[in-house]
Every structure is written in structure tokens, then in C-alpha cells.
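The records we work with from here on pair a chain with its fold. Taken together, the C-alpha cells spell out the fold as the letters spell out the chain. The record below shows the convention in full.
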Amino acid sequence: MNRSLLLLDAFAAHPGDPVTRALAGVLETACAGRLPRFAQWLGLPPAEFRQMLDHCFPGAAQAGWEPDVPPQDPDALPCEFADLVEMLEDGHTPARHGPEVRWAAHALASGCFGHTHLWQDMGLSGRHDVSTLLEQVFQPVFAANTSDMKWKKFFYHRVCERLDIHPCPEPSCEGCDHYATCHGAEAPLTEIPVASVAIQKA
């Protein structure tokens, strides 16, 4: 496959769209070896991954863009991956529907398995890119982070609260220079209401 983010961006149906940027960024960092191998497929089934590629990056598959590792069996994904995806999907913006919500949740969850800041692991230009994506697609999740907790840590704490897991395991951030700063004491989290509109899963 061609591992150039610029090449994948060249096929983007909606250049500059936060979901498109997140998908392209995660795929680029995954294919560069900075995320686990499953992230090359975003943790999606092969058929759905190819649907995502055709929808968001039409023509990329025909040009030869594809993961260079086989898809991973769902049972072999990290145990918290599905919980992260579900937490995000349950907190989607009510006005946002369709498979792009699910794909964005998979991109964010995949990025959580890198070892630096989430925005870096997602191949984005800064924390503001993650915040913009969340504000547009997962607004209840965005609004609940009233203490300005780092997003990766916030996601894990939300999952732990939902599953009543204490103490909460920390995300994989040991490679980050700001580990001590990010993992200090935090204020309690604000409850996230579950969105009333069901996710359409393609």
C-alpha cells in the first residue's frame, strides 16, 4: 500500500472535514507503525472498512490503497476497544447520524492505543483537532469534560464510570514527555447523557 497521508487525502470526498481528517490521520499513523496493527483497519470488519474507504476516500481502493496487514479477529482486539467505541457512540451529537459517527468513534478509539497525546497518535495537528471532532460529532462527550482532562484519559475514565471499574486503568501514554502532567489529580467528571437517537450501523 502507499503509506502517504497526502495520497489518501487526495481522494478525500470532503477535504478538511474533521471526520475525514481523523480517519486519514489514524490510518497514516497506524500504517507507519505508531499504532497497533488492528488500527490499520480501524478495528472494523473488512467489508465495513472498505465501505468507509469508498465513502470517504472514493477511488483510493482502486488506486491500491489498502492495509498491509490482515484484519484482526474481533475477539483479538484489546478488551477495552469496544467499550471505548460504545461510550463514544452513546454520546454522539443527536443531529449526527449514519455510519460516519461509528467510523469516527473507531478512529478515536484506535488512537487511544498509541503512546503519546491522542492528537499525535491520530496524526492530527493539535489537541484542538480532537476537540473540534468531538464538539461536532460527539457533543455530549465534549461538553462533559468540564475539567479539561486530556482526552485519552477522559475517555478511559468515562468507560470506567460506565462499567463501575475502580481503580481505573490508565491509557497507554508512557511514551509521552508530558505523562506526569497529564496524570495528576483530576476533578470529578460530569455525567454524559446517553443520546436518544440510535446509531445507524452500516
Q: What stands out?
A: The chain has ten helices and no strands. Residues 173-202 have pLDDT under 50 and may be disordered. The first helix runs from residue 5 to 10.
